[in-house]
Amino acid sequence: MRRAALSPFVLPAAMGGAAVAVGGLAGFLLGFIGVLLGIDRALGFAGVSRIEAERAYRRLARRRSGTLAYLPDDRGWAAVAPHRRLGVQTIAIDSITGTTDRHKAETFDAAFRPPEWSRERWTQMWLAARRGSELPPISVYRVGETHFIRDGHHRVSVARALGAASIEASVVELGAAGKRAA
Length: 182
Description:
46% of the residues lie in helices and 20% in strands.
């Protein structure tokens, strides 16, 4: 094994050695925690830390630019357009070009980089995604070949940050005004 591969196990091993040296109840507890930490790291969670999530957030926040497109769904053509539910589908991340939430359009940038006020939520989602947790599908309106987020701004931001090409989405297609929904 390479040295880098062993480094996550240095602390658990040191705790085990200290447990033997200390002995008694304190030694038992120290050894038990060391074993749990070793198991956690052996299962692949090593390296996926809050610090890493914070670094990922800061990298994104430094590059914020542009504004996110806004599609109001409570007025205008989108409010009266026929709606057709298409169910959950896999959609391309790059096809998501905007939002139906005015507040999110003002706070997320054009590449869905997160605002400062959402740092905690974003880092928690990033950690969950990196650890393999299944996140619920986002919710979008489809307009032609593009999508506007109704729910899931942070999930899209995290997916983009992790380099995902696609994401699961509950899709509602908006037809041209005057057409009947299927």
